[in-house]
Amino acid sequence: MTGGQASLSIFTQLYSLLTGSGTAAFFARIFGGGMAHDYAVAIWETVYITVSGTAIAYLFGIPLGVILYGTSKGSLFPNRPVNSVLGFAVNIFRSVPFIILLVLTQPVAKAVVGTKLGNAAFIVYLSIAAIPFVSRMVESSLREVDAGVIEAAQSMGTGNFGLIAKVLIPEAKPSLLTGAAIAFTTILGYTPMTYLVAGGGLGNLAIRYGIYRFDATIMYVSSFLLIIVVQVFQESFNLAAVKTDRRRRK
Amino acid sequence: MIEIRDLTKTYPTPEGGITALSGIDLTIGDGEIFGIIGLSGAGKSTLVRCMNLLERPTSGQVLVDGRDLTAMSRKELLRTRKKIGMIFQSFNLLSQRTALGNVLFPLEIAGTPRKEAVAKAGELLDTVGLSDRAGAYPSQLSGGQKQRVAIARALATDPSYLLCDEATSALDPTTTSQILELLAGINRERGVTIVVITHEMKVIEQICGRVAIIDRSRIAEVGKVSEVFSDPKSEMGRELVLPSLRPQAAGMTKRAVRVTFDGRSSFEPVISNMILECRCTVNILYADTRDIGGSAYGQMLLQLPDDAAAVSRIHSYLDSRGIQYADEDL
Predict the structure, then answer these.
(1) Is the pLDDT of residue B179 over 60?
(2) Is residue A249 part of a domain?
(3) Is residue B237 part of a domain?
(4) A158–B78 CB contact, under 8 Å
(5) Torsion angles phi and psi, residue A37, rounded to 5
(6) Which residue of chain B is at minimal alpha-carbon distance from A248?
(7) Would you place residue B6 in the very low, low, confident or very high pLDDT band (cuts 50, 70, 90)?
(8) How much of chain B, in percent, has pLDDT values that exceed 70?
(9) Which residues of chain A are within 8 Å of residue B137 when distances are taken between CB atoms?
(10) Count of the separate structural domains present in chain B
């Protein structure tokens, strides 16, 4: 079967689905031969890799974002050397293409999870690639917090720790959640690279079946499922951001 | 008592620095409502921020109850700030907390036990007349209500001082009046010393006992409000009290007389009678008078005719009526 024929066949099938005949055959074609199970596993793997990667990236990204914010000029604890060095490191890591970073950080994965291959190792690569990005997102969310509110808290004798924990992060929460939705989608965009380390996931499925085995149907279905995963997460984060934002509540 | 001694503040710039404050000496006594008035950019907001060291002076001392803030350790300073409340033009409430949550904030920072803190915050919201809005978020409150929450929040740690940085400048006249009333009540009932920064004469008039006029980084004059406003000594003082008067009329001189009605003269048509009696015209450049209980209060600035005899008739007329006046050059 060639790629051309494959894409032709899926359109034919979509047509027959829309015209009401051959529905069963359509689903058999898509989910038959154990594929339903493969998709289910791939969805789970995608979600688990992306959620873990995002969570770990935030675990490190929030403190780093706070440091980037706090050490900047005129901020809570201005420190030019720390700010410059950290800012530079973040920019370096963000400049290196993910596929190169993945190769470069193999020793880290080996040290942390004991292997360079598989989903667990991939989460390590993903987190390392996402931490600098997430740090910048957190930093920019904190910058949006009204300087007057910070000043008011300072006038009440609030120290830096209180400012971070009780003013900056709570006030930036809607922006942080919106940022998390963007970070999640970006991180998800890296997951097909599991292909390189023998991992799993929908993107990987699309590459293995769709591209290397010329099975366009599986490629399309995998992509379609990815769209759904992204939509679900994006919408939940945005909903959470809007629902918990007290600024627009009437 | 807040004492400011020889305070200067300069902001470094590539051109060598901008002076925000220069040679400031000021003493604010306990229980006072002290006003600081000046135009935008005069340095008044910087000055009030030096009183709790949100701005660190370049030189000079800030003594609060005899202790120099500039010499304090950070920890000591944070503790001292709990005794100096502050409210702002833009209210600066935490947008993600309710009115009650905002008032609880300083108590959380001070480590007050939760139960006690909630009771206290409720009491304070009651004091500012907002107990029914405790669960509202700032976005659901009007400007006046937000400032009330901010006042309750500033009072949570039982401060001895309350700094108000243009606290009513974003509010309409009626709301301004209500907020000032509330501040005056707090000063009366709790003995809190209040420092009011404003560019509005009305604010100073309504609640302040003493006022400092600040002009281009320096204090132009300090004194009782009644004295400074009825007889401003400084150029800026005159400009603030008698704004925008420079029109010239034909047959008029550059001489004028400022008439002050201090309540002793009854509300008779003084100026009309004067014109009839002196048989000459005057040009009213500025007038702000009020009838309070049948007595006249306020000021008028009259441009005088180019006739020495008429001018002396005007003077003797005013003398005969016991009306205060002062000659002025335009």
Answers:
(1) yes
(2) no
(3) no
(4) yes
(5) -65, -40
(6) B139
(7) very high
(8) 93
(9) 246-247, 249
(10) 2
